[in-house]
Specification:
Layout lengths: L7 H9 L3 H8 L6 H10 L5 H6 L7 H8 L29
Helix pairs in contact: 1-2
Amino acid sequence: MGFNGRGDQQKFAELLGVDRGRLNNIECGAPLSKEMALRIVRKFPGVTLDWLFLGRTEGLTAEMARALSEPSKGTDAAGSGILPMTVQTVGGADGRVK
């Protein structure tokens, strides 16, 4: 997506309107919040919540799927180029999602 070099994490954070540390936490495995996911979807037409949270590529445009699967963007263990995100849920004492 054009954010793959030195200093680009800061540029990406600025584009989303968040602190670089918050973005870094997500890249290091912290859960992706619904609010952050919505910021990403709004700034990058073609990225879907299904892709961000579930890794589902079905709803992506062909161009977006291609861009997100390029090897230079990183790959998962299967080599698909689709990197999983951690989903954050909020549950009550009974374990149900609220």
